[in-house]
What we know:
Elements: H1 30-33, H2 37-45, H3 73-97, E1 101-108, H4 114-121, E2 130-134, H5 140-143, H6 149-152, E3 161-165, H7 174-177, H8 180-183, H9 196-213, E4 216-224, H10 227-239, H11 249-254, H12 258-272, E5 279-283, H13 287-305, H14 314-327
Parallel strand pairs: 1-3, 1-4, 2-3, 4-5
Helix pairs in contact: 2-13, 3-13, 4-13
Amino acid sequence: RDAELPHVCRRPPRRSQAQPASRPGTVVSIPTFFEDRPTLAKRLVKPLLVKPGSKVKLPAGFDPAYKASFVKKSDADDTLQDGIRLLAEYQDRLAAQRTFGLLVVLQGLDASGKDGVVKHVMSGVNPQGVEVHSFKVPTDGELHHDYLWRYQLELPERGQITIFNRSHYEEVLVVRVHPENLQRQNLPSEAADENVWNRRFREINDWERYLVANGIRVVKLFLHMSKEEQRKRLLARINDPEKNWKYSADDALERRFWDDYQAAYSDALSNTSTAWAPWYVIPADHKWFAHLAVAGVLVERLMEIDPQYPKLSDEQKKELERAKLELG
């Protein structure tokens, strides 16, 4: 099977006895890091997974400053480019097969690096096969529909990757922290009672299960940042004229609700990390590692899909031969 793939996707040759395998804690060589699936899954992606059924209580259990000991910052750029090449290869196969779509859910507090992930991790993929949707405060027209309606409209086609930069999870995060937003939705009284959040968790799980069953794979990434790191990044937006445009007065005001957001995220992660659509908590204090971790998760999930180029029928092959003769 490896012989059919481009060079970048082939696994490295077996080591000779004179080249012992790396031990845990040692630095993995750059050319093989993203090509060795067991290394990818066990060493990079697995510690970030929210196990379905587990209880999350942030910040416990997930360190926003975590960096895998086997990856050096000095090697991060080259390693990331290796992962991006694999993403581009799998995206090409995904588009050719047109059986599966990939929905990438990006969540995180202000300044956690969501835009940077899109910019740096998706830089090498074909833009024709990727769409990014950022969901702001719902309009009056959107509020006339059920809360999942506007997200349903932007789901990926088969063969496409769609990124939700903020997503349907805002309906159990921001809306929960600021309950006046729930009042704006003009819900029947029985739909806005004390069970509303557990009900929405169940509805979101059912919706995502439906998507996965119909070929739309769901990858959910929470960019987990410390309060101090957020403070530094917001100050940088204020102090650097080239970053002023990123700053909003609401960013500083929202910090007053930090503990409320941590509790809301903890509950959402605990209740919506499922076998069919698990959450990954991406340590976001170090941008270089966050980008690498996101690339690792996406490559791993695309490897699981394992899209293939369509095989031509005998008749199609004959048509190609006739075309070659026609073209001389």
